[in-house]
Amino acid sequence: MFERKITTKIKKFTEEFFRIASFDVKVEVDEIEEFTIKVSVKMDEPQVLIGENGKTLIYVQHILNKVLKKKLDKELFIDLDINDYKAKKINYLKELAKSYADDVALSGQSKEFRPMSSYERRIIHLELKDRSDVVTESSGQEPDRKIIVRPA
User: Fold this and answer.
1) Residue ranges of the chain whose pLDDT lies below 50
2) In angstroms, rounded to a whole number, what is the distance separating the alpha carbons of residues 13 and 40?
């Protein structure tokens, strides 16, 4: 568990980080696991920091993680979300996974997802792991790796 003092430092640093980069943001910080800190940022024009398919968000998160680990000298992981992009994406992927699985179960025909990042594939695999009527597998090589849903 982190001390409240650490989460306060993370919040202040994150606000300063975005202010220096000329972004007007509102920051909230919550500890969600032992070494994971969720940093939620709200802003008026989020797309510039989210980027296409969340790629810029991943890079910003990576930079923030590196700087905060060094600055605080603590083992931690910053899970950055901007305007709930990640939360909405996770919900979308879970619903899409259920829809694909239902289609496969009804038709008996396999179905492929578009190529996805390992993070997105993990969400799909976890969402469908307890279903007895379908199985999932990853196929292909990065960056074209995708999930195939097959009848069980």
Assistant:
1) none
2) 13
